[in-house]
Amino acid sequence: MAAPKKGRRSPGSQGRPGRALAVIVIAMVALIGGMFISGHTTPRLGIDLAGGTSFTLEAKNQPGKPNAINTANMNTAVGIIERRVNGLGVSEAEVQTQGPKHIIVNIPKGTNAKQARQQVGTTAQLYFRPVMTTTSGGKTKAPSSTPSPSSSASQGKPDKGDQGSSGKPSPTATTQGRAVPEALKADKTPTPTPSKTPKGGETGKPSPSQEKLAKDFAALDCTTRAGRAAVAEKAANTKPSDPVLACSQKGDSKFVLGPSEVEGTDVDDASSVFESQNASGWIVQLDFNNKGAKKFAKVTGELTKQQSPQNRFAIVLDGEVVSDPEVTQGAITGGRATISGGFTQQSSADLANVLSFGALPLSFDIADETTVSAALGGEQLQAGLIAGAIGLALVVIYLVVYYRGLSLVAMASLAASAILTYTIMVLLGPGIGFALNLPAVCGAIVAIGITADSFIVYFERIRDEIREGRSLRPAVERGWPRARRTILVSDFVSFLAAAVLFIVTVGKVQGFAFTLGLTTLLDVVVVFLFTKPLMTILARRPFFGNGHPWSGLDPKRLGAKPPLRRRRPAAPGPADTPKEA
Questions:
Q1: 475 with 466: CB under 8 angstroms?
Q2: How far apart are CA 157 and CA 162, in angstroms?
Q3: How many whole angstroms separate alpha carbon 230 and alpha carbon 236?
Q4: What is the pLDDT of residues 209-222, one digit of tens each?
Q5: pTM of the model
Q6: In whole angstroms, what is the distance from residue 338 CA to residue 257 CA?
């Protein structure tokens, strides 16, 4: 059996270091090219560096729910608000609780502050309520006790003068919308017009609550923003089982709405869709869950039996009527509905975003709204960069003084690591919404030390081999396995710490953890694919291979005693054998 050959090199150990260098150079070129192709050449900055808007939300007690403000509901609200804001394409929205009833929302510069304010302040209480009475274009549409021929003949088709909340002919509910509950058919459902005629021909008198509702409806003013806000707040705080007054979002219509039977919690998903057959083009498509689909089919079936305007259902979001379509095709089954009526692409997307992520478990007031100056963020960024430059300069000075020629290898490796880190951060901005904040900059500065430490470990292993009497080329290869183990263990500990920190923390601290973890991984890549192959190539050059005094590998300076390799004493020859006398 043949004995294994000694001194056999592992593939790629020192025979073909150019391949590893080619791989990392190609990777850097690809990343740089991708950065310019994407049109992004600088990282996205967080609110503390680029400026932005900060909101402080204060939770309010819900009617009938005195203990609604608790830790569970606050945490749920944080998650919903964060998903809403991220749905706007915000790069680094920071949402976290502060105290028992406050939530802080930080949104970086570049986001529409008005749009973000609407998203964070909207409770998203969604109800489908039947329309009892409405005014559109100055006309009051109230239910009459005796159906007119035109009303019964139309069976849900809108009259020419009948208009929805947008002042245009009311859209039809090809949607799986909201229907009239059984309570509408009962005398207990209030209406502002005391025109009901009960059995026996006597004229029924409205109850005090009905009279008050009729009086409030007549005095209702939806033409001003303040008036609509007051009505919306009162409607949002009204129980779903009670009738309510409401205004359209544009203020051109006002409504008396009956009790709700379908709620926003029955909506499973919502999306913004362009529909060419629709007048405005943009609609919001709703998908109900199983429970909501059954409710919706029932109420739309009841709505078709009513005359206008009672064959409509109003979609009420936070006390305002978003749309009031008619049901014209009988009970709508299948669990799908569409909301239409004057949506733009942006407004339909905003509504779908709110409905998709659900209603907040609490109502919130915006207690404070502040804007962080971009100038202040620029000063902080400049200070961070100065700190990083000072740290890098100190590392370079130490490497030059102590390692001399080897410092060129270290600086080249640091440059490769910096290129990879910068390009990846730039590409992660549009890719996953990563934004560079001040803690992330600190993580990058700390990474300089981690990367330099890996080079130092390898250099010292090579020097140890030279001290033992080996020449440079064998020292480079023999020192690598021991250095590799030390580097991997050290980087694993750093990455584990970064991962734990990222998981257990929130907000800006996650930026530090993410950057630290990313640069730790890149340190392994650079050492394996750049530093080690580069040392293998340089060991073949006389400057390093012969131990020039400025190479940092001079055997005399390292304390190695010549000869560098011990030689066996030569065996005595015949001439050395003493002759006999």
A1: yes
A2: 10
A3: 10
A4: 778 888 888 888 88
A5: 0.54
A6: 20
